[in-house]
Write a structure and sequence with these properties.
binds magnesium ion; alpha/beta; binds guanosine-5'-triphosphate; 10 helices
């Protein structure tokens, strides 16, 4: 059976760490499998242009000792997830990752709408230092949370296997310890409570990708950087064996309502309208939460397994 291709969406504002995350994930698993460097899984890149784009980023870090510059336009990265098993090397799946400039990550942007509808799962990027110490940034998160909840609502309605990796970036800039973790948890609650209510499949990841210099050569210290992507792909591989390759748009097109009432070119507009209106509904519910009119008793909240690297 040919390996499936999954589209992974990334959402997060300017400077949150999306490109560093991609470079770190690739670096961690870089290189073909060899006896000297045995790896269980790695990202293989056959496309010449993609390979040159990712290598440009890594070379910039190596030559300057600095993080890569801000992303200017939506850039497509295609990879094969390779796996070394006892029966040899296998391609588990293929995946497409779009590196998106922060200000393009908005549901009002038609290019971003396209990516949302084509996606099979998503990485949500939140700056951990920003979440704890930057009031202005924390306020912009309401908008991000609404978009994520809008997608989760549609996933829930359509019973799609769509997962969310919540990546807390720049954790190396925070003091490690349980108090920090408690504060992160507290500030994430507005998102977590709503995802739990929608029975969303999500996992938190604490990402720390500092630049280190060894014998005059700079590189990303990327231990555990690829965990969110490996987790998302494992979730997709687990469920898509039994299912056709549904993304958000095809899932929505299956509804009796859209099939009976709208011709195919209109279905996409209906899907977008659905995301936009659920986003608005999200804002209304968030307001009710803030006003204390709407609460969930602690014993009703489901407990989600967490992976902690702090
Ligand atoms: N210390 C530390 N800094 C980080 C980390 N990730 C990102 N940064 C910092 O955040 C800056 C922005 O990271 P990028 O990956 O370029 O952010 P982006 O989300 O791709 O931003 P746009 O492309 O502008 O949308 C970097 O230049 C670093 O200064 C990290 O894990 N640790
Ligand atoms: Mg970028």
């Amino acid at each position: 059976m040919a390996a499936k291709t999954f589209n992974l969406l990334s959402i997060g504002e300017r400077g949150v760490g999306k490109t560093v995350f991609l470079a770190g994930s690739y670096t961690e698993l870089q290189g073909e499998y060899s006896a000297e460097h045995p790896k269980a899984s790695w990202f293989d890149c056959q496309d010449q242009e993609v390979r040159s784009n990712i290598e440009k980023i890594l070379q910039h870090i190596q030559n300057t000792g600095l993080y890569p510059p801000a992303t200017i336009k939506i850039t497509n990265f295609n990879f094969d997830l390779k796996h070394q098993g006892w029966r040899g090397i296998k391609t588990r799946c293929k995946f497409r990752w779009w590196d998106i400039p922060g200000e393009a990550c908005h549901i009002r942007n038609p290019d971003f709408q396209e990516l949302v509808l084509k996606s099979h799962s998503c990485c949500v990027f939140i700056s951990a230092p920003g979440l704890l110490h930057d009031r202005e940034y924390a306020q912009t998160l309401t908008d991000l949370f609404d978009q994520v909840v809008a997608i989760a609502s549609l996933v829930n309605q359509q019973r799609l296997n769509y997962s969310f990796a919540i990546v807390l970036t720049k954790c190396d800039l925070l003091e490690s310890g349980t108090v920090t973790q408690l504060q992160i948890e507290q500030n994430l609650q507005p998102l977590i409570t709503r995802l739990d209510a929608l029975k969303a499949n999500y996992q938190r990841f604490y990402s720390a990708i500092p630049i280190v210099s060894m014998q005059g050569t700079a590189s990303l210290n990327a231990r555990g950087a690829a965990d969110p992507l490996l987790w998302l792909l494992a979730q997709l591989n687990k469920h898509h064996h039994f299912q056709p390759n549904y993304n958000l748009a095809t899932g929505l097109a299956q509804t009796a309502l859209t099939q009976q009432m709208f011709p195919s070119n209109l279905r996409k507009s209906v899907a977008l309208l659905a995301i936009a209106s659920i986003s608005l509904l999200g804002i209304a519910i968030a307001l009710l939460f803030t006003l204390g009119l709407f609460t969930i008793a602690p014993d009703q909240a489901p407990i989600t397994e967490q992976k902690v690297h702090l």
